[in-house]
Write a structure and sequence with these properties.
Elements lengths: L3 E8 L3 E4 H8 L8 E4 L6 H16 L6 E7 L10 H9 L6 E5 L5 H14 L5 E9 L7 H5 L2 E9 L5 E10 L5 E2 L8 E2 L3 H24 L8 E4 L5 H9 L13 H4 L6 H10 L7 E5 L6 E9 L13 H6 L2 E2 L2 H7 L18 H6 L1 H4 L3 E5 L5 E2 L14 E5 L3 E10 L11 E8 L9 E5 L13 E12 L2 E10 L3
Parallel strand pairs: 2-14, 4-5, 4-6, 11-12
Antiparallel strand pairs: 1-7, 1-8, 2-3, 6-7, 8-13, 9-10, 12-13, 15-16, 15-17, 18-19, 18-21, 19-20, 21-22
C-alpha cells in the first residue's frame, strides 16, 4: 500500500520579535533571521500542535475518529513523565484505541515519527495516521540562539486515499555529532562557542551526506526535485545544502520561511514542506530532510499528485501565518515567555481541580462536548443536571459550536494566573445555532486581542490554550479569540 499526505496544517504564533529588538539590548545577530515567532503566554508545544492538527484534519476532510495513529515529535513537551500526544489526541476527539506516541531526543524526532506512522499504515493497521512536529525553544539571553529560535507546529495527515503527495522512498543517517543540546533541568538550549563549525561540519555536512545517500539508494539526482524542504536553523544553511545537492530549481527559495519565524525545531521540516505544498503543481517533487543535533537526519522523496489542486484553500496556507503577526518589544517578550514575572495572588483552594473532578469533566473541557435538552432543545454548557432554560433533566450529548458572538464582556485587572498580562478580557458569547434564552451562552477568558478589540456583537472562536498550572500539572482548556472577517 502506497502512503502519502492527504492533508496538512501549520500554526505559527502571531507574536514576533525583530532581531533589532534583541540587538538593542545585547548586540549580535543570527544570520538570515529577520524576526522570530514567539509563543503567547498561554501557548506551548501542546496548544500549537492541536491548532496545526485541526487544520490538517480539516484539510483532509476526515473525522478525527477515523485517525488510527497520532505520533508527535518535539523537544519542548511541558512534561518529562506524562504524554503530550495523548492530551492532543483527546483535544482532537480521537479514539482511545488509536496508536499514540511521543517522540523526543532531538529535532529529528518529527521525521522519526513520520517514518513510524508510515510503517503503521503500510502494515495495514489503520486508514489514516497523523504526524505532528511542534516546538518552542529558548536561547540564553544575549546568545545567538536567542535571535534564531522561534516557535511553531506543523501536522501531516497520512493515508492511501486522496493523496496530494505520495512518499516514494526514504533514507536515514544517524550520527552523534553535537552542536546544540539541552540537559535535564536546563531551561535554555546550549551550544559550543563556534556556531560556524556547527553549520558546516554539522548541519551542512549531515544534510548533504543524507541527500547523497538518498540519491545513491534511489538513483535520483538533485535535478529531479523542484523543492527542498529542509530543517532551517537559518536562511543560508538550507539554501547552501540544496545547492550542494544539485537542487537548482527557481522554486526552491519559496520554501524557505525561517527569516520570518526563526528556527522552529522539530516542526521546521514539516513547516517548509507545507510551504512547498502550498505552491507545488502535480508532477513536481519535494525532497524533505530533517536535522537533529546529536541524532542525524532523515530524507524523504514526495511526488505531488493531481489531487492537490482540489484541496487548495481548505486550510490556511503558511503565508497566512507569516503575515498574521504582531510585533512586541524585548521587555514584552521576556514577560510573555515567563522570564520576567511579578508576584501574583495565591490561587484560592477552590480553584484546585481534584483528580476525580478533572477526569469527570474531561470530555467537556478538552473535547468541547455539550448537552442538548431533549425537552426544549437548549444547549447546555458546561455540564448541568438541569436544563438552564426549562429545568428538564434529559439530555443528549452534542458537539459545542466553536464560534459565536459576544453578548457581554468585562476586564479582569487582578488575576492569580499570569498577572503580567492584566487586564485580561473575559466575555460571554452566544454560540452559533444555539437555542434557548440562556442556552448556548458560554463564558471564558479571551486571548490574542487587545482590550480595544473587544466589542459586543464581535465574532469569536474557541481555541485550545493553557489555562493555568496546578501542582505542576498544566490545565488546558478553551479561550475565545476574535475572528477576523
Amino acid at each position: 500500500m502506497s502512503v502519502g499526505i492527504v492533508g496538512y496544517g501549520v500554526y505559527i504564533p502571531k507574536y514576533r520579535l525583530k532581531r533589532e529588538e534583541i540587538s538593542k539590548v545585547w548586540g549580535g545577530r543570527a544570520p538570515g533571521i529577520n524576526e522570530k515567532s514567539v509563543v503567547g503566554f498561554d501557548e506551548d508545544a501542546t496548544t500549537m500542535a492541536v491548532a496545526a492538527a485541526q487544520d490538517a484534519i480539516a484539510h483532509a476532510g476526515v473525522a478525527p475518529s477515523e485517525v488510527g495513529a497520532l505520533y508527535v515529535g518535539s523537544v519542548s513537551s511541558p512534561y518529562i513523565s506524562k504524554s503530550m500526544a495523548v492530551i492532543i489526541a483527546e483535544a482532537l476527539g480521537m479514539s482511545q484505541s488509536a496508536s499514540i506516541a511521543d517522540f523526543a531526543g532531538s529535532t529529528r524526532s518529527s521525521t522519526i515519527a513520520l517514518r513510524s506512522c508510515m510503517d503503521f499504515l503500510e502494515a495495514g493497521k489503520g486508514k489514516y495516521g497523523l504526524v505532528i512536529g511542534t516546538d518552542w525553544q529558548l536561547g540564553m539571553p544575549g546568545d545567538s540562539l536567542e535571535h534564531s529560535l522561534g516557535a511553531g507546529a506543523a501536522a501531516c495527515l497520512l493515508g492511501s486515499d486522496g493523496k496530494i503527495a505520495e512518499f516514494e522512498d526514504s533514507y536515514s543517517l544517524s550520527t552523534s555529532f553535537t552542536g546544540t543540546w539541552r540537559s535535564d533541568g536546563d531551561q535554555f538550549v546550549n551550544r559550543y562557542d563556534d556556531p560556524r563549525y556547527e553549520r558546516f561540519a554539522g548541519y551542512s555536512k549531515i544534510i548533504v551526506d543524507t541527500g547523497k545517500g538518498f540519491f545513491k539508494k534511489t538513483g535520483k539526482t538533485g535535478s529531479d526535485f523542484q523543492y527542498a524542504a529542509f530543517t532551517q536553523p537559518d536562511a543560508q544553511s538550507p539554501a547552501s545544502a540544496a545547492k550542494k545537492l544539485g537542487i537548482k530549481s527557481v522554486k526552491m527559495p519559496s520554501s524557505i520561511v525561517s527569516p520570518l519565524c526563526g528556527d522552529t525545531g522539530s516542526s521546521s521540516p514539516f513547516l517548509e514542506l507545507a510551504a512547498a505544498l502550498d505552491q507545488a503543481e502535480p508532477g513536481e517533487r519535494i525532497l524533505l530532510a530533517s536535522y537533529g543535533s546529536g541524532a542525524g537526519s532523515d530524507a524523504f522523496s514526495l511526488l505531488v499528485s493531481e489531487d492537490i489542486n482540489a484541496k487548495r484553500g481548505k486550510a490556511a496556507p503558511v503565508q497566512h501565518y507569516l503575515e498574521n503577526k504582531q510585533y512586541i518589544d524585548y521587555c514584552t517578550y521576556q514577560k510573555t515567555i515567563g522570564l520576567l514575572k511579578v508576584k501574583g495572588l495565591p490561587e484560592p483552594m477552590s480553584a484546585i481541580v481534584t483528580q476525580p473532578s478533572g477526569e469527570r469533566e474531561k470530555d467537556y473541557e478538552l473535547k468541547l462536548k455539550a448537552l442538548e435538552c431533549k425537552g426544549c432543545g437548549s444547549l447546555n454548557f458546561p455540564k448541568r443536571h438541569y436544563c438552564i432554560d426549562c429545568r428538564g433533566e434529559e439530555f443528549k450529548e452534542v458537539p459545542l459550536p466553536r464560534r459565536g458572538n459576544i453578548i457581554t464582556f468585562n476586564f479582569q485587572y487582578v488575576v492569580a494566573v499570569s498577572p503580567e498580562q492584566a487586564p485580561i478580557p473575559i466575555c460571554t458569547a452566544k454560540m452559533e445555532g444555539a437555542k434557548g434564552q440562556y442556552g448556548g451562552n458560554v463564558s471564558s477568558m479571551m486571548t490574542d486581542c487587545k482590550p480595544e478589540d473587544v466589542t459586543v456583537g464581535g465574532k469569536v472562536e474557541l481555541i485550545f490554550r493553557r489555562c493555568g498550572q496546578e501542582l505542576g500539572l498544566v490545565r488546558y482548556g478553551y479561550k475565545f479569540r476574535p475572528v477576523k472577517e
